[in-house]
Design a protein that fits this description.
The complex is a heteropentamer of chains A (105), B (473), C (501), D (180) and E (639).
Chain A lengths: L6 H21 L3 H25 L6 H31 L13
Helix pairs in contact in A: 1-2, 2-3
Chain B lengths: L2 H6 L1 H19 L6 H18 L6 E3 L4 E3 L1 H25 L8 H20 L3 H19 L6 H32 L4 H7 L4 H18 L7 H8 L2 H25 L5 H24 L4 H21 L3 H32 L10 H4 L1 H15 L5 H15 L3 H26 L14 H19 L1 H8 L6
Antiparallel strand pairs in B: 1-2
Helix pairs in contact in B: 2-3, 2-5, 3-4, 4-5, 4-11, 4-14, 4-19, 5-6, 5-11, 6-7, 6-11, 7-9, 7-10, 10-11, 10-13, 11-13, 11-14, 12-13, 12-18, 13-14, 13-17, 13-18, 14-16, 14-17, 14-19, 14-20, 16-18, 16-19, 17-18, 17-19
Chain E lengths: L6 H18 L5 H30 L9 E10 L5 E8 L1 H24 L6 H19 L4 H19 L6 H32 L4 H4 L5 H4 L5 E2 L2 E2 H16 L8 H4 L5 H10 L4 H8 L1 H7 L1 H22 L5 H22 L8 H31 L15 H15 L5 H16 L1 H26 L15 H16 L5 H4 L13 H24 L3 H8 L1 H8 L4 H46 L8 H22 L2
Antiparallel strand pairs in E: 1-2, 3-4
The chains are: A mainly alpha (105), B mainly alpha (473), C mainly alpha (501), D mainly alpha (180), E mainly alpha (639).
């Protein structure tokens, strides 16, 4: 199904997505949106792995499985992160990342 | 799979077993008697630690996905010792009212991170490495936020998980590139297929950033101080010693087994970041007032020194790094143990609270002093030997300038370590920490640390045993 | 048991004894006994050494004991002594012994004080017996660190600042030294073979010139800082002035000698080629040290400052002499180390005792002490006379050997430098006599002085011990120089072997 | 232009546009929905790459699980109509610069590299193969990570639980000056 | 008794006494320690005389050449193969002559002090110092090598320091002792550098090698030159500098007058008879080197001697402190001796100046010691140093008066007193060498007579002053030495010095050159007459003269402001413009740099704290930037 599409398209797409995620991580104030940016990042990695696996090394499934595990880990991570965010909300009554800075210097 | 195979991966299996035992104890014991879970966990863990030293066959399992050899074995044992000390040190704190209903969770989480680290170290495949890494990280974020009534703790948790998520994203991206250029994620195969081209270098840099985050290398270190300060003392010490040690271990394994081809590149990267790390870590440490935060920056700068052992890419360097981590475990845990003891007894963690401590609590002060001297690299304690071997490893490869920068940095570090010593021994205080008696676990942990601080240095067999490992390089 | 190892062991046992003793008052007794044994031991060592030499033992080092420590880096616990080290060990024992008695009145954290003090001594002893660069370095640092606590806790004045400054500067020096030692080690086998930390083994090879150029300055400065090399001497005035009596004694008397000894045994001995090429830089610096220290001492008002600057000057002379790289001057350097060690220790001991009575160290707040405390005053005068190089006391012997030796150097540059250095003897006379005149002579100023008691028994013991040795060297110098002089022959062979001249 | 290319362009533009919207939208719930779109489009790409299983996982776990989790937490912590303050221009500028620079370097380096594909025959990915691989102990078997991730999930669960165990609002932090 | 081994005891005995009295003196009774010291010195004196007798008349003079006898010589400190300090005893005409001078004067002073210092606190200390001095001085003169000489030179200096500062509670004494030591120390610096230079050239310290006219040392001495003078000349000038300091020649004379703060017997011993002539002795000892290898230096010796003698004589005319007058007179007389050496040749009659110098040294020691001891007796009687407090003492102190008069006549060069003979030889030698020097000395002879008799007339003639107690003659312990010394001062001129003490050891004939002697006696008589007119006949005359020559008088009274110049140099230049800046520089620049390093570290540490802002996104920003920067550097910049 991927005939006619060069591999580099996928990779560029992934790169753009990755750095969009990075941008989001650096700019979004809300902890949840930051988490969303992380998801973007992980997704872009997955795209990379799958595209590379499909285009270059289709005889094995390393990229495929890696993506599979990344998704799983991402889910676990998201669960804990959300728990922590809620914890923050409980303690700080805000989830603005800029306000979560009682420790500094 | 055979019984022998299980022997090969007995560290991980035993740890998992402990997790399950604790879980079972938590589930099945009546709620009134939960105190005992801690004892069970520690006893079991102590057993594992001892068992770890039994001779173990080397070999690979799961089609090279899991590798066991002497080097890795010794790494795991070192981590076990450290973890055991952390566990013992945390007993007093876990006995507090607010923590009483969450003791077994604490052990489960902590031991599972250690399991993750062990898997990470034994990984022969980047997937195992990644999963081990995450297993070593995610539960830790929860532990960092463990303090129930502390805003700082909560903040530490969120900071840790978000930035570690970012870092693992970056790391994964790098792995994807490496995968794309080599077509494999097995360490051994990748090592042969790496060619030193730009994309691989870029992939390596992404990977490097991810690891540097775990080891607290400047400029990837900024989370360290905040998390260390916010987290409970035992978790801070765990983060600063075990977590960092494990990351260093896997980092050198990967560097030396997977990336020797692009050594020229990573040496430059390590050179630059090492200088930055030592310097920035020290500069920040100078002015810290909170002891935990202070030790955080100190541990950042220690990471810079550790890089000196790595940069040469030689067997001596590898040995010196492993040895240094061992020494560092005793030293840093000694320091954190003292901080924890004082914090548990009086709730005070600031430098000014330490004024006049020697008059009221000479024992703790002396241990703290020894630990700090060891961190600073003052003879006759072990840190001196550790630093010397690190520097020697770098000097062997001609990195004299780097060594000079490092030794000059040790002077800055000596300055702030002495500030603490000064506070304890010299400064007067109208309201010093009152004399307190530590309980047995604290004493035990501190005693082991003290013994370790002395013995690991003087007793040359320790170093020689590490040095005699082949490392495959 | 090797007799040299005992020199490290006995202090450690003494420390153990101090820890065990229940009664604080017994701490001093234990320390006194421990250091007394040390003193006897060093007398025995000297005796054995001379006996061995006379019986025709011509090996470079005697009483050698070599234990492998870290095999992979070829680190050994290697001890051995030649005449120079024996002399330095004897000096250390004397100063430590009298230091213990000089601090007999210590009553704040007594136990800790004596432990630190003896720990310091352990480091010094270890340094002098080491043949292995690694252990040497280890003991060096071991000797420096207790200084921090000793000054910081029991010092006076801006003690925290001084202690910190001293420690940091000395450890900074040791940092450079570490690089130097590593450099030497990794170049110790230019023709292949095992790398070595052993001084004797390294001295048999020639370290490549390129390496020498880098590591000689590092090593020399590293040791030089401890030897108060200009401009790295500023720890000395502050450190000495803040330190408690015994610590000043030990520090100026012995610890500063580590610098000279190390510069000579490590920097010059192992890298003579670079030493010859680069010596001019350091000769300029040391010449400055010599004159500058003396001038600096003239206008000081604090007794300890005066002595600190004086130490800068005298220790500068040690390094100066070493850099001349000939037998006589080096021999002079050794004698100067011992001589300065003894007399500066005496000075500091006396300053401490005077301070204990007058509670000031400002010379212009005192006067006419000769009348009220004649014993201490006479001792002070003797120390002063030794310091200004009066024949019959040790200072003269040392200085003259240095000057004559240095002046034999074939290069005009060195000889001009010598002339400049020689001029310090006048400046020394100026500041010494100035102090004596203001402090001891003249009418006694205050009525309260009448209450002063002269030296107590432990003070007498402390000062007389030192004076006896000062006079001994001054009157019978040939006994000492024959011992040290012969031991310099390997150095000279090595230096001459590189066909400089 | 083939259908494939058209689809790719469609998915790609959805991903890019909605990614950017996700990280710029000032309304949080919308951002979450945009993220959902991105994730679904990604699943589409997986389909295109013949990884139907993974696409399914993506849709269920990601789009179904995580996004829902996120939306829940949004509802827990924020007012739905919450509209963020615009991002400080400096922060936005520097972050954009960093992101663009990173993207440029990455893309240039990728384009610079000639990937070499293997000659071996491709393997069909089906559930059978996936299941077999996951439970295989030999080479290319993934039973070990599969087992370990179960520990991870257990630990994550415990982690989430202890964080969620209720703590009082009062802070016991000692107020300290961290810095001299 | 010709092996001279017993000479060792000549300087060992005083040393042992010094140690004994120094360590245990305060436990002995004062009187015992005094007697002990005196007795010991008596032994030394006897030994010295025995030595002299056997040396001059039994051993050495056999072939009319006095040999140099090295009694023993053992290594004390080894420097190099050729350079080592030995300790030994060298007997030759001048050292034996010096033994006599030192032991005689010393013994007199010891005896005298028993009376003079009676009841002083620190009596035993005084005697131990005296013994130390005797030891050092003996060691100095019998030195076999230049370094031994230097060693004892320094010891002599310290004994002088200790004795000047004997009254240590008196600020003036303290100041004077300090000044004496530092000034001579400064001169000794020259001496030492001179030794270094000389030994570098000649590879030896040994006198017997150095001063051998045929020896290699002198032959080797030419060669490299610096500023037009050969290195040997330079080294000899520097060595002479030591002599200038010790012998209080211009410009290092300033310490000597102040040194009179010490007890008067000390002044007699050290600052008149023995130590101050050490410079002369030094030049005499090194004379062959000067003469053969460094004639330019010898010329300098002559001129400095001449100038000092004139200069000091002029100042002496204006001083009012009796001891200061004598002190300047000493300077002046030593100038004579220096001059004599400076103008001397070598060997036989050419060495007249050398012989004359030694002769004068000998006679001067006697009469100057006598003068000081008399002054002591006077001071003892009137309790003042100042001439203004004295007058008409003739009738109270008849013995003192008589001996003082003899000494005055001797110093003025009136025949047949000793000074006449020695001074005459000096003038003769100067006449043959350089007329300018000769006339200067003529003038000085007149001035000397003038100021000595000014002193004599003021003190013993004139009116009584108001005395608190009636002055009375001193006890016998004090007067006996006066008588002995007076005898020596009167008759020592008849000793045939040219037979005994000559430049090359060979005796030669001298005769009084009446062409020079008669005018000199006339000049001296004129001086005495002037003094008589001014201070006896017409006491108001001095005041009138002073008012006429107000400025020059003031100049001379203030010793030509040399002291002030020194003070200026030390206090202003050295203290204020060298030492204080050095101290300041050290504290602020050198130390400041070190502190600045620390401060900069602190400041940097403070400045960079914004990196650790607590803002997660900033952390992430640095994270990403770090990655990108690393990538940029490693891939595109360093690849």
């Amino acid at each position: 199904m991927n005939a006619g599409i060069p591999l580099s398209y996928f990779l560029i797409l992934a790169a753009v997505m990755f750095f969009t995620g990075i941008y989001g991580f650096l700019t979004r104030r809300n902890l949840i949106t930051i988490l969303m940016s992380v998801e973007l990042i992980l997704n872009s990695v997955n795209i990379n792995f799958l595209a590379l696996n499909r285009y270059l090394f289709p005889h094995k499934l390393e990229g495929f499985f890696f993506s599979l595990f990344i998704i799983t880990v991402a889910a676990a991570e998201a669960a804990v992160a959300i728990a922590l965010i809620i914890n923050i909300y409980r303690r700080f009554t805000t989830i603005n990342v800029e306000d979560v800075n009682i420790m500094k210097y | 799979m055979s019984i022998g195979d299980f022997a090969i991966m007995r560290h991980e299996l035993l740890l998992t077993a402990v997790i399950l035992v604790v879980l079972a104890a938590e589930i099945f014991s009546p709620s009134g008697k939960r105190k005992s879970t801690g004892t069970i966990a520690i006893a079991a863990f102590a057993f594992i630690t001892v068992a770890g030293f039994l001779p173990s066959p080397a070999g690979t399992l799961f089609g090279n996905m899991y590798i066991a050899d002497k080097t890795r074995l010794i790494m795991k044992n070192i981590l076990n010792i450290g973890a055991l000390l952390v566990l013992i040190q945390s007993v007093t704190w876990l006995g507090r009212d607010e923590n009483r209903d969450r003791v077994s969770e604490y052990f489960i989480l902590l031991i599972s991170t250690l399991t993750g680290m062990n898997f990470m170290i034994s990984a022969g495949h980047f997937l195992m490495f990644y999963i081990g890494l995450e297993l070593a990280t995610i539960p830790l974020t929860a532990l960092a936020a463990y303090e129930r009534y502390s805003n700082k703790s909560a903040e530490a948790g969120i900071k840790l998980i978000l930035i570690s998520a970012l870092s693992s994203g970056v790391l994964l991206y790098g792995l994807a590139m490496l995968y794309g250029t080599t077509g494999t994620l097995y360490f051994e195969e990748a090592a042969h297929l790496l060619k030193n081209n730009n994309l691989q270098t870029l992939g390596f840099i992404f990977f490097f950033s991810g690891m540097a985050f775990k080891i607290s290398i400047v400029p990837f270190h900024l989370w360290t101080a905040d998390v260390y300060e916010g987290a409970p003392v035992s978790i801070t010490s765990y983060l600063s010693v075990i977590s960092k040690g494990a990351a260093v271990f896997i980092f050198i394994i990967v560097l030396f087994t997977v990336f020797p081809v692009i050594m020229a590149s990573w040496q430059k990267a390590i050179y630059a970041t090492s200088v930055l790390t030592m310097t920035i870590g020290n500069l920040f440490a100078i002015r810290q007032q909170n002891l935990k935060r202070f030790l955080a920056f100190s541990s950042i700068s220690q990471a810079g020194y550790i890089f000196l052992g790595i940069i040469g890419g030689n067997a001596a360097g590898m040995a010196s790094v492993i040895y240094y981590i061992l020494v560092y475990i005793f030293s840093n845990l000694g320091a954190f143990g003292a901080v924890a003891a004082i914090s548990n007894a009086s709730g005070r963690e600031d430098l000014k609270d330490y004024n006049g401590l020697y008059r009221t609590n000479p024992g703790v002060s002396l241990i703290m002093t020894l630990a700090l001297f060891s961190l600073a690299g003052i003879p006759p304690v072990a840190g001196f030997f550790g630093k010397f071997f690190l520097f020697a490893a770098a000097a062997e490869k001609g990195y004299y300038l780097l060594v000079t920068i490092a030794v000059l940095n040790t002077i800055i570090s000596l300055y702030y370590y002495l500030l603490v010593v000064k506070a304890m021994f010299i400064n007067a205080n109208e309201n010093p920490v009152e004399s307190f008696k530590s309980d047995i676990p604290t004493k035990l942990a501190l005693g082991i640390c003290t013994a370790g601080i002395f013995l690991t240095g003087f007793a040359s067999p320790v170093y020689e045993a590490i040095r005699n490992l082949s490392f495959g390089i | 048991m090797n007799i040299l190892s005992l020199f490290v062991l006995i202090p450690l046992l003494t420390i153990a004894g101090i820890v065990m003793v229940k009664d604080i008052r017994h701490v001093k007794v234990v320390s006194g006994i421990g250091t007394g044994i040390q003193l006897i031991m060093s007398a025995i060592l000297t005796f054995l050494y001379i006996q061995a030499r006379q019986s025709g033992d011509t090996s470079e080092m005697l009483f050698v004991k070599d234990l492998v420590w870290f095999r992979s880096l070829n680190i050994h616990f290697a001890v051995g002594v030649d005449g120079v080290s024996v002399a330095m060990i004897a000096l250390t024992s004397i100063v430590v012994f009298s230091g213990v008695f000089a601090s007999w009145e210590m009553d704040y954290l007594t136990r800790e004080f004596f432990i630190s003090l003896i720990l310091l001594a352990t480091g010094v002893f270890g340094f002098f017996i080491s043949l292995d660069l690694f252990t040497m370095f280890l003991f060096y640092e071991l000797a420096v660190i207790p200084m921090y606590l000793l000054i910081g806790i029991w010092g006076s004045g801006p003690k925290e600042y001084s202690a910190m400054k001293l420690t940091l500067m000395l450890m900074g020096a040791s940092a450079l030294l570490l690089v130097g030692i590593l450099g030497i080690y990794f170049n110790s086998a230019p023709e292949g073979g095992n790398l070595s930390f052993n001084i004797i083994e390294i001295s048999r090879t020639t370290i490549p010139m390129k390496a020498q150029y880098i590591f000689f300055p590092l090593t020399f400065i590293g040791f030089g800082v401890l030897g108060a090399l200009f401009p790295f001497h500023t720890w000395s005035p502050d450190g000495h002035s803040s330190a408690p009596t015994a610590v000043s004694m030990l520090h100026a008397g012995v610890l500063m000698k580590l610098g000279g000894y190390g510069a000579f045994r490590v920097a010059i001995f192992l890298m003579p080629e670079a030493a010859r090429e680069l010596s001019w830089i350091f000769i300029i610096l040391t010449t400055i040290s010599v004159v500058y220290g003396a001038f600096g001492a003239i206008v000081q008002k604090d007794l300890k400052y005066i002595n600190a600057y004086s130490s800068v000057s005298h220790c500068g002379l040690v390094l100066f002499a070493i850099l001349m790289m000939n037998h006589t001057a080096m021999n002079g350097a050794v004698i100067q180390m011992i001589s300065h060690g003894l007399m500066t220790a005496l000075f500091f001991a006396l300053i401490g005792m005077i301070y204990g009575r007058t509670h000031t160290r400002m010379i212009n707040e005192m006067g006419g002490l000769m009348k009220v405390i004649p014993f201490l005053s006479v001792c002070y005068v003797i120390a002063g006379l030794a310091s200004l190089g009066l024949p019959g006391l040790s200072g003269f012997v040392a200085e003259m050997t240095i000057f004559v030796g240095a002046f034999q150097h074939p290069d005009t540059f060195q000889r001009v430098a010598t002339i400049i250095a020689v001029s310090s003897i006048v400046i020394t006379a100026v500041y010494i006599l100035r102090v004596i005149a203001i402090l001891l002579l003249g009418p006694s100023e205050k009525n309260s002085y009448e209450l002063f008691s002269d030296a107590r028994w432990y003070e007498r013991l402390s000062t007389v011990t030192l004076i006896v040795f000062i006079a001994f060297i001054g009157l019978l110098p040939f006994l000492l120089t024959s011992m040290t002089g012969a031991s310099l022959q390997p150095f000279m062979n090595k230096i001459l072997g590189m066909n400089i001249f | 232009m083939t259908l494939n290319q058209l689809m790719f362009i469609l998915f790609a533009s959805i991903i890019v546009v909605f990614s950017i919207l996700t990280v710029t939208s000032r309304r949080i719930l919308r951002a979450a929905v945009y993220l959902l779109f991105v994730l679904i489009s990604t699943a589409g790409l997986y389909f295109m790459l013949n990884y139907a299983f993974l696409a399914a996982v993506q849709l269920t776990l990601y789009a179904g699980g995580i996004v829902v989790l996120i939306i829940f937490s949004i509802l827990l912590t924020s007012h739905i109509s919450l509209k963020f303050e615009p991002v400080e221009w400096k922060k936005s500028l520097f972050s954009a610069l960093a992101a663009i620079a990173g993207a440029l370097i990455t893309i240039i380096t990728i384009l610079d590299f000639t990937f070499s594909a293997t000659n071996e025959a491709a393997r069909e990915v089906n559930m059978r193969l996936v299941g077999k691989s996951l439970l295989s102990v030999g080479s290319d078997g993934y039973i070990l990570p599969f087992e370990v991730i179960s520990v991870l999930l257990l630990a994550a669960m415990v982690a989430a639980i202890i964080i969620a165990k209720k703590g009082g609002p009062k802070s016991t932090d000692t107020q300290t000056s961290n810095y001299q | 008794m010709t092996d001279f081994n017993y000479t060792l005891w000549i300087f060992l005995i005083p040393f042992l006494v010094f140690i004994l009295l120094g360590l245990a003196g305060h436990r002995l009774k004062a009187r015992i320690s005094g007697l002990l010291g005196t007795a010991a010195l008596g032994v030394v004196t006897v030994l010295s005389y025995i030595t002299a007798y056997f040396y001059y008349f039994r051993t050495a003079g056999i072939n009319d050449v006095f040999r140099k006898i090295t009694v023993f010589d053992s290594t004390w400190l080894h420097f190099t193969d050729t350079l080592e300090i030995k300790m030994g005893i060298l007997l030759d005409p001048i050292s034996v002559m010096m033994l006599i001078v030192i032991s005689t004067v010393s013994l007199m002073v010891h005896i005298y002090s028993l009376g003079y210092m009676k009841g002083e606190k620190g009596f035993e200390r005084y005697y131990s110092f005296l013994s130390l001095f005797a030891f050092s001085m003996m060691g100095l003169v019998v030195a076999t090598n230049i370094f031994q000489m230097y060693i004892f030179w320094e010891l002599v200096g310290i004994s002088s320091y200790l004795l000047i500062g004997f009254y240590y509670q008196k600020p003036e004494a303290v100041r004077a002792s300090k000044k004496a030591f530092i000034v001579t120390r400064f001169a000794d610096l020259g001496f030492l550098i001179g030794i270094l230079l000389l030994s570098f050239n000649t590879r030896t310290f040994d006198f017997s090698v150095l001063t051998d006219p045929q020896g290699t040392a002198i032959a080797h001495s030419s060669g490299i030159s610096f500023l037009g003078l050969s290195v040997t000349t330079w080294s000899m000038i520097l060595v002479y500098l030591g002599g200038v300091g010790k012998s209080a020649m211009f410009p290092f004379h300033i310490w000597l007058p102040d040194a009179m703060e010490g007890p008067t017997p000390v002044s007699a011993l050290i600052h008149a008879a023995t130590m101050v002539v050490a410079g002369v002795y030094l030049v005499a000892r090194m004379f062959p080197v000067y003469f053969f290898a460094a004639p330019a230096a010898l010329e300098i010796v002559a001129w400095i001697g001449a100038f000092s003698s004139l200069f000091a004589a002029i100042i002496a005319c204006t001083q009012t402190d009796i001891k200061r007058v004598l002190a300047y007179s000493t300077i002046s007389q030593i100038g004579y001796m220096m001059l004599a050496l400076g103008v001397s040749g070598y060997g036989g009659h050419d060495g007249l100046g050398f012989m004359a110098s030694m002769f004068h040294l000998f006679t001067h020691a006697m009469f100057k010691a006598l003068l000081f001891l008399c002054a002591g007796a006077i001071i003892h009687a009137v309790h003042s140093n100042f001439m203004i407090d004295m007058g008409g003492l003739r009738k109270y102190l008849p013995l003192t008066h008589l001996t003082f008069l003899i000494a005055c006549l001797a110093i003025s060069g009136i025949p047949p007193f000793s000074g006449f003979f020695s001074k005459d030889e000096i003038l003769a030698a100067a006449f043959h060498h350089n007329k300018v020097l000769f006339f200067i000395e003529y003038a000085v002879a007149g001035i000397t007579a003038f100021y000595m008799f000014r002193l004599y007339f003021t003190v013993f003639r004139g009116e009584d002053r108001h005395y608190h107690t009636v002055p009375h003659e001193a006890p016998p312990t004090m007067t006996i030495p006066l008588i002995i010394l007076a005898t020596a001062a009167a008759f020592s001129g008849f000793i045939p010095f040219s037979k005994l003490v000559t430049s090359d050891g060979k005796a030669f004939q001298t005769h009084i050159e009446w062409g020079i002697a008669i005018p000199s006696v006339l000049i001296a008589t004129t001086g005495i007459g002037t003094a008589y007119v001014m201070y006896v006949r017409n006491p108001s005359l001095p005041g009138r003269i002073i008012s006429i020559f107000k400025h020059s008088y003031k100049l001379a009274l203030n010793k030509f402001y040399i002291d002030e110049m020194y003070l200026f140099i030390t206090k202003k230049i050295i203290f204020r413009y060298i030492s204080e800046p050095v101290a300041w520089f050290d504290r602020h620049i050198v130390d400041g740099t070190m502190n600045a390093l620390a401060i900069v570290t602190q400041v940097v540490s403070f400045r960079i704290r914004e990196f650790q802002s607590g803002q997660l996104q900033k952390y992430a920003f640095f994270f990403i930037s770090g990655t990108i920067l690393l990538a940029l550097t490693l891939i595109y910049l360093l690849h």
